[in-house]
Amino acid sequence: MCGIVGGVGPSIQAAEVFDGLKRLEYRGYDSAGMALVGAEGVEVIRAATGRHSLDELKGRLSRLAPGANLVVGHTRWATHGAPTLGNAHPHTDCTGRVVLVHNGIVDNFRELRGEVLALGHELKSETDSEVIAHLIEDGLAAGMEPAEAVASVFSRLLGHMALVVAFAQLPLTIFGIRRTSPLLVAAGDGRSFFASDAPAVLDVATSFYEMPEDRVIAIGEPAKGAAGTSVLVPLAIDWASQDVELVGYQSFYEMELAQEGEAFSDTVSSLIDEDGGAVVDELKVDPYELKRLRKVTVVGCGTSYHAGLVGRFLIEHFAKIPVEVDVASEYRYRDPILDDDHLVVGVSQSGESLDTITAVKGAAAAGAKTLAVTNVIGSQLSRLADAVLYTRAGPEVSVASTKTHVSQVGALALFAIYLGELKGHMYPEEAREARSSLRDVASAIEAALARQAGYEESLAPFVGSDRFFFIGRNLQYPVALEGALKLKELSYLAAEAYPAGELKHGPIAMLDSEAVVVALVPRDRLREKVLANIEEVRARGARVIVVAFDGDPEAATLAETALFVPEVRPIWSPLVTVIPLQVMAGAIARSRGLNLDRPRNLAKTVTVE
Ligand code: AGP
User: Fold this and answer.
1) Span 50-106, pLDDT tens digits
2) Residue nearest to atom 4 of ligand 1 (CA)
3) In the annotation, is 301 catalytic?
4) Is 154 domain-assigned?
5) pLDDT tier at 608 (50, 70, 90 boundaries)?
6) Residue after which a domain boundary falls, among 191, 222, 244
7) CB under 8 Å to 330, separation ≥6 — which residues?
8) Within a domain: residue 138?
9) Looking at residue 40, which CATH number applies to its domain?
10) Of 145, 182, 224, 525, whose CB has the highest number of CB atoms within 10 Å?
11) What are the angstrom distances between the C-alpha of 479 and each of 163, 362, 576, 584, 597?
12) What is the DSSP string of 519-579?
């Protein structure tokens, strides 16, 4: 999704804002641009060469005069209008003295576009964003102060978005405003920044602040009619600049995969106290409210949804509460029956996925309690929920999630144990023992990761295949879904996931000798059933890969290749069986010469519907 970086203050370098945009590359983009604003006017450079746009922009940075005091930059993920040069941000008004960058969608854009055209403005792009610049121009022409014009126009815009605006007449001030979409303020060395995400400004800022919604904030020199930074709430960002540097690996995907054991361990350790008890990072309601819960719904998107599916088994197992899990974009348009003994859990790495935020917001408005499981401190999801569990995975740059997935499952497991204890289904000693055994899974994750080269060697005969099916039952079905998603995202191959018992109800018709079936068969209570399902697959001539616990030769005899993982308790098995599948997706994508970090068409943080 679009990324915004804007900086103001003594000698802001265009290169610094450019570096911020580089660090937002993971959000996904297809064009980019920057503007330098001075009293004499606005200079804009843009590039629209897909994922090479920033490289192209870099070659032209020297065209922006050095020693400026105000620079705004943008990476665009096309929504209204193709990713062309004309549609790339920043956009300006007819005078060229109002410049803005925008993230999100203006829902009433058609009506507003008609209005500005009727008023005689000349539109240079097909975007919804440019229309805003012309409306602000009208506000100024009507005698409004810049901040007033921004506020007045923003109040007319329907939808979720973030906007950063600068004016040639005020070259030492930038204005920002947001509704649901992410935007934060950062400061350091006497300079101030707006950014979509903290990693963009980690190397230039030392303090970070939340932005309120629907309120114009001015950074730089104070401006009439706008709130200054003094009204902002500080954010405790504990990531360091080097956390987002690629060191020792070809891609962030590979680096983050290798960090998975540490991410899981840091997450789980931070949610267990010195006595082996539970920690909830932010609990804004009385624990009694959680004790009386009678139903839990988990919502999320993509990989986070899959973590939620694992969470369902864990919560039902430990806390004996009925759990349903839904894709956030579906849940938000249902008419769920909610009340105050119902908990809705939003799982989101970024804490900024619009679908998840709106699903959780809707549940809160309907009276449910809410919990956020997120990797980003101060993200919107964390701010709106009644309680928060942070995953401590560190920044995840690769679009395809790895280390945050196991961290989410770890956090949900601890929440399940916490609820189990709170509701009296577990004695404190039992809960402590369960936490301790979960913590030990970190070494099994590390051991599985250490087998990466072996997995890749075993998978070599399959890298040319183009049809994959992932099957598993019970706790392994979400793992199958995650394996298929990783392969789809990274390799663009057809990959389907099914509950193993469901194959014979239809999908088995697709199997032939070209199909590869990856069967997840750890030693658990459904192992025999899955082995029988593998026999069904073999009988149709499909090639089979099994993922099994160490010391399970029987599973291996049914397959062309076996990927063994260290044995853990069956209830923790999704934390280790997912690893060979993450390795597999990376290996196949690499063999196809694809970019592991920025797969085509995808954005890391999906801030539009
Ligand atoms: C993960 O590999 C995907 N890129 C995607 O499915 C992601 O999990 C989804 O968009 C949700 O993002 P979130 O966790 O930041 O909410």
Assistant:
1) 888 898 998 888 766 666 789 999 999 888 888 888 999 999 999 999 999 999 999
2) 400
3) no
4) yes
5) confident
6) 244
7) none
8) yes
9) 3.60.20.10
10) 182
11) 38, 28, 10, 13, 21
12) EE--SSTTHHHHHHHHHHHHHTT-EEEEEEESS-HHHHHTSSEEEEE----GGGTHHHHHH
Tell me which residues have their CB closer than 6 angstroms to ligand 1.
301-304, 348-350, 353, 356, 399-401, 489, 605-606
Indicate whether 604 belongs to any domain.
no
604 is catalytic: yes
**Both 148 and 112 in a single domain?**
yes
The total domain count for the chain is 3
How remote is the CA of residue 486 from the centroid of ligand 1, in Å?
Answer: 11
Domain range holding 24? 3-244
**% of the chain with per-residue pLDDT over 70:** 99
β pairing state of 295-300 and 323-327: parallel
**What Rg, from alpha-carbon coordinates, does the chain have?**
25
Is residue 156 in a domain?
A: yes
Asked if 94 and 211 sit in the same domain, the reply is yes
pLDDT at 67: 61
Note whether 154 and 115 are same-domain residues: yes
Residue 399: closest CA among 596, 200, 201, 199: 596
Q: Whose CA is nearest to atom 5 of ligand 1?
A: 302
Burial of 606 (0-12, 13-18, 19+ CB in 10 A): buried
Task: Out of 180, 304, 578, give the residue to mutate to test ligand 1, the one with the largest number of ligand atoms within 8 Å of its CB.
Answer: 304
Closest atom of ligand 1 relative to the 353 alpha carbon: 16
Q: What is the pLDDT of residues 404-442, one digit of tens each?
A: 999 999 999 999 999 999 999 999 999 999 999 999 999
Residues 427, 432, 437, 442, Cα dihedral to 10°: 150
347: CATH: 3.40.50.10490
Q: How many CA atoms lie within 13 A of 434 on its CB side?
A: 28
- Are residues 225 and 271 both part of a single domain? no
Same domain, 569 and 531: yes
Contact residues for 337 (Cβ-Cβ < 8 A; gap 6+): none
Of 244, 261, 289, the domain-final residue: 244
Considering the domain architecture, whether residues 416 and 402 belong to the same structural domain is answered as: yes
Q: Do 183 and 227 fall within a single domain?
A: yes
Structure tokens at 431: 């809960």
User: What share of residues in the chain are helix, strand, coil (percent, to 5)?
Assistant: 40, 20, 35
CA 524 / ligand 1 centre spacing (Å): 29
User: Which atom of ligand 1 is found nearest the CA of 302?
Assistant: 6
Residue of 22, 361, 403, 604 with catalytic role: 604
What is the 8-class DSSP label of residue 126?
A: S
- HSE-CB at 367 with a 13 A cutoff on CA atoms is 8
Enter the pTM of the model.
0.86
User: Residue 230's pLDDT is what?
Assistant: 77
Tokens at residue 418, please? Answer: 């916490």
